[in-house]
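Quick one, T. Sequence first:
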Amino acid sequence: MITAVASKLLETPDIQARLKKIKILILDIDGVMTDGRIFWLESQGWTRYFHIKDGYGLKLLMKSGVQVAVISGGDSKDVRQRVEFLKIQHVFLGDEEKIKAFEKIRQATGFQADEMAFMGDDLFDIPVIERVGFSATVPHAVDQVKVKVHYITESHGGWGAVREVADAIRRARGGE
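Structure tokens:
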């Protein structure tokens, strides 16, 4: 749930103008779509928790016409299964040089940087954060990221932060 203070920050004229232009939301996985923790299951290997609210928010965002992409330095079976389940179109895993994946997404979609949003939480996310029209992070992000983004979510990564941003984009573009 977005608090009144966070809601007011998302409703500033500058942020609304940025959100209205967004045609694609690009997400980091660890720390953004998850809470950043991984755990070992004997039968599966390393795995993460994903929140259903975030997944449903992404489905609603895609249904509204906004594309979704994932860029993650990690590459694992559980992440691949999650992005396949959500039918995320642009997926780049296993490379911490995220700007290369960003450029591939930009070229594939034809979108301008100001039509792209990104959520990341760590140092290797900064080059993309600095390029997009709207950037967000989570409360537990490193300080160097927090000072670069347009918005810090109220919800933590893996606990609805993605939904918070997805809903804000939909609303700014005239959705519910």
